[in-house]
Specification:
With 314 residues, the protein is of the alpha+beta class. It has two domains: 5-161, no CATH class; 181-312, Cyclophilin (Beta Barrel), CATH 2.40.100. Helices cover 15% and strands 30% of the residues. It has helices at 38-47, 195-203, 271-277, 293-312; strands at residues 5-10, 16-18, 56-60, 65-69, 73-78, 81-87, 90-93, 99-102, 107-113, 118-123, 126-127, 157-161, 181-186, 206-208, 216-220, 235-236, 241-243, 251-253, 260-261, 265-269, 285-290. The strands form four sheets. The protein has a seven-stranded antiparallel β-sheet, with no helix packed on it. It has a seven-stranded mixed beta barrel with strand order 13-20-17-18-15-14-21. The chain has a five-stranded antiparallel β-sheet with strand order 2-3-10-5-8, with helices on one face. Strand 17 (241-243) and strand 18 form a beta hairpin. The chain is elongated.
């Protein structure tokens, strides 16, 4: 066993290894996967002084409780997260978007996310992981990726290698913003829906269902009427596409989505809104707002520029 490792005292809820995901595999049924909230993933890695595409631990709602063994290491947590660090008999209240040093036998207890879903733990080293198709991202539905395609588990040990010994303290003043209007472009089956159904989609509120995970987000609301066909020949899907099954309640495809589907597609969430979309907790009310393709491209460029500016501040 490596002399540097984390011992998992409590695995938390849906804690997995993630990175930037896999590209160019849709043709064999493999989605991108990767970190749900790309901005917070990138910021976590930059705060630890490590390469931007380093694997991290992504957790939902409750994170892992870890005990560290080995040489000093820098860690950072991003998102809206409550956590504590135990050093001997002393407890330190952690702050997101700030680096902390863990020493031998220190404990890190990631208690919960606050009014959001996902948080990220990055380290100034590398988790010793097996890569599949040039990525460690774990897709537990398909059993793909590091950790044998499984979530982290209690009493597991995670080896660490190549620790960066540059322990410069890093901090970023950043607050995650909420989103109320989800901007979308029209989907390929937009004209399958009645004028009343289109009006409902853009003018009514929908509620995020508890039946949401890394694969998709189900929404509850007034039924969106389809006046052509509620089932179609299976077609390719992309991240962010909004399908409407026969019950009339939209489903937004997320990072671990299936690559084909047979429900009509009324819209696609723009890339600039995706990071905020995935942080919406069950019970949150949202509305859809239509934008055209040119606007969607411009908004993504602005969002990407803002992300790069935040990274440059660290």
């Amino acid at each position: 066993m490596s002399k540097n490792y984390f011992e998992i005292l409590r695995a938390g809820i849906n804690s997995t290894f993630q990175d930037l995901g896999r590209s160019n595999l849709y043709h064999i049924g493999i989605p991108f996967s990767g970190a749900m909230d790309n901005r917070n993933y990138l910021l976590a890695n930059k705060l630890t002084g490590i390469h931007y595409d380093n694997p991290v631990i992504e957790f939902a709602y409750q994170g892992p409780h870890l005990k560290y063994h080995g040489d000093k290491i820098n860690i950072a947590i991003t998102g809206d997260v409550s956590f504590k660090i135990k050093k001997g008999d002393n407890f330190i209240d952690g702050e997101c978007y700030q680096s902390f040093i863990l020493e031998n036998n220190d404990e890190l207890d990631i208690i919960s996310t606050n009014k959001s879903v996902y948080g990220y733990l990055a380290i100034s080293g590398k988790f010793d992981l097996k890569f599949q198709w040039s990525s460690c991202s774990t897709n537990i539905k398909a059993k793909i990726g590091s950790n044998n395609g499984e979530k982290l588990s209690d009493n597991q040990k995670i080896n660490v290698k190549e620790i960066n010994q540059n322990f410069i303290s890093s901090k970023l003043n950043y607050v995650n913003k909420k989103i109320e209007n989800i901007r979308v472009i029209k989907g390929t089956n937009f004209n399958y829906f009645s004028e009343e159904g289109k009006k409902i989609f853009f003018e009514n509120e929908f509620k995020v269902s508890k039946l949401s995970d890394r694969m998709g987000m189900r929404l509850d609301g007034k039924k969106i009427e389809n006046n052509v066909d509620s089932n179609i020949r299976s077609e390719g899907l992309i991240k962010g596409v909004v399908q409407v099954p026969p019950d009339g309640n939209p489903i937004i495809m997320l990072s671990d989505h299936g690559t084909i589907g047979g429900y009509p597609k009324i819209g696609v969430v723009i890339s600039a809104d995706y990071d905020k979309l995935v942080q919406l907790t069950p019970g949150t009310n949202v509305k859809f707002q239509e934008v055209d393709l040119n606007s969607a491209e411009a908004l993504f460029k602005l969002y990407d520029l803002e992300t790069q500016n935040l990274i440059s501040q660290i």
